[in-house]
Each structure stands twice: as C-alpha cells, then as structure tokens.
Amino acid sequence: MALLDVQNLGISFGGLRAVDDFHLQVKKGQLYGLIGPNGAGKTTVFNLLTGVYKPSEGIIRLDGEDITGRSNIEINKAGIARTFQNIRLFKDQTVLDNVKIGLHNRFHYNTFEGIFRLPRYRKIEKKMEEKAMELLEVFELEKEKDYLASNLPYGKQRKLEIARALATDPKLLLLDEPAAGMNPNETHELMETIRFIREKFDMTILLIEHDMKLVSGICEELTVLNFGSILCQGETEKVLQNPEVIKAYLGE
Amino acid sequence: MKKLRLSRQGRSDLITYGIILLLCLILFLIGQSSYQLQGLLVPVCAQIMLAVSLNLTVGILGELSLGHAGFMCIGTFMGASFSIYMEQFIPIPALRFFLALLIGALSAGIMGFLIGLPVLRLKGDYLAIVTLAFGEIIKNLINMVYLGYDSSGLHFSMNDTASLGLAEDGVVIIKGPQGVTGTPTDSNFGIGILLVLLTVFIVLNLVHSRDGRAIMAIRDNEIAAESVGIHITKYKLMAFTISAALAGLAGSFYAHNYNNIKASTNNFGYNMSIMILVFVVLGGIGSIRGSVIAATILYMLPEVLRFMSQYRMLVYAIVLIVMMLFTWSPKAQAWKAVQLAKCRKRLRPLTDRFRKKSSGHMTGEGE
C-alpha cells in the first residue's frame, strides 16, 4: 500500500483552477519527484498536502489515515514535514535552537517546569540537545551550532531547513526545490545528502526540483505537472523521454 | 564536586542578574542623597518590572502592545482592594502583601488572556491600536467602579458611593475617579529588588525553555513555525498572558507604595504605556538587560536632573537620542563589539588561571 495516496485533488482560487484532478501514490521508502514548468502548481500541491490550503475536492491519505482538510499543525503531527522554496528559518535564533524548535512536539515539559528549571526540564532539555546535535552532525552543521541561522551560508541554510523538518520525525518529507540557488558542487553534495537521509532515517521523500541532473540522478518516479494538471507520471527515465514533457519544458 | 560549567546562555543570564544588583546598589546610594529620590525607589522597581514584562510581548513575541499600563492598572486596583479588605482577616502584613501581589498578577493575567483571545488575531499596527484602546477602556472602567465593605460583606456599584448602600460601619475601598484610599503601604525597595529579580528570572527562563523557543519561532516566521507543528495562537496567548500577569504584579507592588492611588491619565493612561514602550525600545528590543538599564536611567533622570530646572527636559531629550544611537546605530554596535573583545582579551589570563585552579582542585579531590 502506498504511504501517500492522493486522489482527485483539486483547488480553485476564484476563477483560477490551480490544481485539477491530481493523483499521486508514493510508496514507503521511495524518492519521488514532482516537476513541471514555472507556475505549473507544484508548490500549490505541497501547500495542499501540508494543509496550508484546504483542497476544494479530493482525498489525501497518509499511511491509510485520511488527513484531508486538517490544519497544517495536525498534518505535521500526522507525519508530513516540509521545507520551503524560499528558505524560512528562524533567523534570529541559533542553528541548534532551530532544530530544537523542530523537536517541539516530541519532547514535553510544561511551562512551570520550564520557568523554574525543575528536574524534568533539565532531563528533557538534555535529551533534546543530544537529539538536535545528532541531527546537526548528520548535516555537518555541528560546528556552527551557536551561529545565528541567518549567518549561515546559503547551502547550509538549506541543510538546516531539512534538519529542522526531520526533527519533527516525519513519515514523509517534502522538499520544495532543495537545490535552488546552489552551484553544481553544492547540488551534487545535496544529492548525496538526500540519498543518505533516505537510508539513515528510512525516509520517504517527495521533492520538487528544476535541476534535471538532480531529478534524473535520484528520483525513482516522477510526476510532471503542467497548468495544474498531470502531464505524465511514471518511472523517471520513461517520463523524461516523453515528447510531451520535452515539449512542455523546451517548447516546440 | 560538580563542576560549575555554564553555557553561553547561562553566563549571559548571570551578567544580567549582576547588572541588576549593581543598578540596585547605585539606586540605593542615590536614594540616600535626598528624600525625594528615596521616594522614587519603589516606583522605579515597578517601572523596571513593567519594561521587562512588556519586552516579553514586544521583543520576544514580536507584537506591538500599547495597552500595558491597562494591565498594570488592573493589578494595582485588585491588589490594593484585596489588601484593604483583607486587613481585618489576615493580621500578618507579609502574608497579606504576598497574597495581594499574587491577586494582582492573577487578575491581570486573566484579563490579558481574555483580551488576547480576540486581539491577537491582529498584527502590527492594528494590534497596537486595539491594545491601546483596551488599555484606555480598562482605565475608564476602573474610574467608574465603586467598591466598599461593611459587616455584611462587599458592596459594588457603577454609579456612586451612596448606591453602595453601606451600613454605618462601612468603608469605601474604591471611590470611582478618586481611586482607592487606605492601602497599607507595605512596599519597600528590598521587596522591589526581589520582585525585579523574580520578573527577570521568569522572563529569561521562559525564553530559554521549550515554550520560549516556540514563541520566538512565531516571531521569526509564523509559517515555518506552523510547519513544524507549533500552535501559533496558544503560544501568542501564553506570552501575552504572562506579560500581562507580570505587569499586574508590578501594579500591585506599585499600589502598596501609596496610601491613595487614582486611575488617572498620568498613572495608567496612554502616556504611561508609551513610556514603558520607550524603555523597551531604547534598551533594545528583545534585550532584557537593556530594558532594565533603560527603565532605570530614563525614570530616574528627570528627578536627578531637577537642579537644572528648565534645562531638565532638554537634557532628557539628549539622553534619549544618545541612548537610541548607542543601542541601534551600526557604528556603535561595532564599537561595542570591539570593546567587548578587548575586555575579554584582558580578562583571559585571569579566567584561565581561575579555570586551571578550579580544575586542579577538582582532580585533587577526585584522587
């Protein structure tokens, strides 16, 4: 059974049909790509999946559980985490704190214990710190843990965003153009990181990307969106050779 | 022996507490010089508490609130009324005062929660306008309240003293625009210092806890905060409520410094809210330490400068500008960073020696 099962998903903004009859099955452990020309509706699909927008119609199931129409907080708790196309870090906080905020719903102590630093505060803060450092080490950010997030170089900010998303312990990770603004070296490094995440965390990943090298390098299956509807769906190699897809990307 | 190892945060907090104690010492010495200045010691503590608590809303949560004096007002009147009424039941002044402080904080906190519920849906300027209005509403409502007690219990009215219908032995606690009269003057500078420390302790520890991080995450990026599962409304309300409760605590403390207190425009009006905001902004938004220093200097200054008569406000304005530059201009920040580095360099041999000594001591004990 698919981990993520989307049927007949659609949303309209006024008269604009942004996404129409979108369906998608992502199996557990799969690396799935969502591509398409600018304005095709890829990020809108992400916003629908994460509950930022409520779909006009359609069903979204995660691990068999119907999560259609839930708020983004509930969907995050259900197990979908994401990164953003334009990086959205907590800029005025340290790298370590950014990851700790990602751990927010996995570790609990109440406000009173926090203010008066009772034993549980110390115990759980220590655990959080360890867990956060573990994640930072995966992304080789442990040396920068006390930097402000805004002071990190661009590539590391992208990594930190992924680390923060992983901190919420998701079943499905959505990456919105992770390679945007990266040079070829950084992109290559990112590909390695994404592969590594999948293996280390046994993660299912759905990503939006424009960089064809990255897409053809790591994605097993692709869905191509154009003008809000699916143009083509299937194994990466076949999709990329589809004349329709080439036409949509390069023109005639 | 447990090694005393402080994180960067811990060290920074310690410096803040140190600065507060130093300021209190200076204030105490200033207070010795004249009777008038001594009279300012309790209010200045209340001002510091207000500035620190407002910083929780403005600096940590990142929302502009202009109704802080309103919450203080609630704390003042609830605390004072409680004390007057309870004077007959609780003979121990210390316990009564403690409970009055608690009541002041609680009532302001509840009010903060109730007001925050609808108001925090707004942002930026709109939130500022609405909180400003609520501050004024609270003040004006309290100006309409008449409260008294006699042998049969409490009496309450919104009209006048006569309509309270008190018996012969009745005492009026709140007399509308004339305010509360007969508050026991329990406040003193020592308790003020303790309360300032408590306020700073609560705010700093909150900031460094799981909840504080969530609050700051909302400030930095609401969409991202939601994407990692942080409940925006809950944490906004939490920050706003705690901020209001601490203002209420300050208000209750302030009330017990005066026998009579009115909810006038000067005390609890718009000007007061702006004044607190000035402390916060000039001290550095989000910097607790800065709020403490700015509140102290800016509150004491007009009084200290009294000997200059007419030029007093001129100097005050200049100080405002200098402080603004010192906190916010890039050049001043660079200069501060350089000075700090120099200071560290000079202190390094000292700290190294201390470290060596303490670690040597430790291994010695371990063997």
Structure, explained:
The complex is a heterodimer of chains A (252) and B (367). Chain A is an alpha/beta fold. Chain A folds into 2 domains: 1-75 and 172-179 and 212-252, Rossmann fold; 80-169, P-loop containing nucleotide triphosphate hydrolases (Rossmann fold), CATH 3.40.50. In chain A, 40% of the residues lie in helices and 24% in strands. Chain A contains 10 helices and 10 strands. Chain A has a 6-stranded mixed β-sheet with strand order 6-7-8-3-9-10, with helices on both faces. In chain A, strands 2-1-4-5 form a 4-stranded antiparallel β-sheet, covered by helices on one side. In chain A, α7 (184-201) links the parallel β7 (172-176) and β8. The longest helix of chain A is centred in the middle third of the chain and has 20 residues, at 119-138. By secondary structure, chain B is mainly alpha-helical. Chain B folds into 2 domains: 8-143 and 179-328, Orthogonal Bundle (ABC transporter involved in vitamin B12 uptake, BtuC); 144-178, no CATH class. In chain B, 72% of the residues lie in helices and 5% in strands. Chain B contains 15 helices and 5 strands. In chain B, β1 and β2 form a beta hairpin. The interface between A and B is medium-sized, with 38 and 27 residues.
The overall number of domains of chain A is: 2
How would you name the CATH homologous superfamily of the largest domain in chain A?
P-loop containing nucleotide triphosphate hydrolases
Q: Name the pair of protein chains with the most residues at their interface, and give those residue counts.
A: A-B, 38 and 27 residues
Class from helix and strand fractions of chain A: alpha/beta
Helical residue percent band of chain B = over 70%
Strand order of the largest sheet of chain B: 2-1-3
Distance between the termini of chain A: 39 Å
| CATH class call of the largest domain in chain A | Alpha Beta
The number of domains of chain B? 2
Which spans of chain B of ≥5 residues are poorly predicted at pLDDT below 50? Answer: 360-367
Instruction: Please give the count of helices of chain B.
Output: 15
pLDDT averaged residue by residue of chain A: 92
